[in-house]
Amino acid sequence: MKLYTSLTSPYGRKVRIVCLEKRIDIQLVEVTTGTPDSPVNAINPLGKVPVLVLDDHRALYDSSVIVDYLDHISPVGKLIPADARQAISAKRWEALCDGILDAAILIVREKRRPPEFQLAGVMAHEQGRIDRGLAQLASDLAERKWCMGDTFTLADIAVGCLLTYLDLRFPDLQWQTQYPNLLKLRVRLNERPSFIDTQPPPPAS
Ligand SMILES: N[C@@H](CCC(=O)N[C@@H](CS)C(=O)NCC(=O)O)C(=O)O
């Protein structure tokens, strides 16, 4: 299996951590996106990473589908609970984290435009999703060890990838002082080899 991603993609990192936790071997193919000639366009019509290309050449996207597939093909280190209600709860954590990331990435993209073309209204709207999303994550986590209670799951991986992305791209956000319980979780997650081995490089700009 080949995983097409960039090393900076938080969604790609989520998939890479899942592979490491489940001891699934994949070949990493580093790609760039966002250009008409990006090789990703040929395997994902949306032109986004991550994409997992299976040995029979089928391409899977997006990251949420890929992690479901990976958890399904190997019983090692199950990350999505077997119980249906619990599984949906874990996927809800993931959906919220991915949604906050979508908002954060839109702001990053907007900030790359010349100041006179940046849309303050769009950025404020997206910032609202980030602020409400973080408040919800902190409230749902409360004083639990892991998002779902005593067991490490996909939900923790999704939260960890989100928080690292925010640290790199939004250093002024101050989520750590506002939500000390999320910080405690992030510290615990960053001790895991899978998180250490997939630390993203600092952003170029
Ligand atoms: N919902 C998608 C989001 C993927 C996504 O937005 N990936 C970004 C990189 S972090 C991308 O490929 N962007 C390229 C583009 O929008 O052209 C997933 O979970 O895989």
From TrEMBL:
Q: Which Gene3D superfamilies match?
A: 1.20.1050.10, Glutaredoxin
One annotated Gene Ontology cellular component of this protein = cytoplasm
Q: Which GO terms describe its molecular function?
A: glutathione transferase activity
Q: Where is the GST N-terminal domain?
A: 1-78
Q: Which key words are in the record?
A: Transferase
The protein's Enzyme Commission number: 2.5.1.18
Looking at the record, the residues that make up the GST C-terminal domain are: 83-205
Top EC category: transferase
List, alphabetically, the Pfam families matched.
GST_C_2, GST_N_3
Tell me what this protein is called. Answer: Glutathione S-transferase
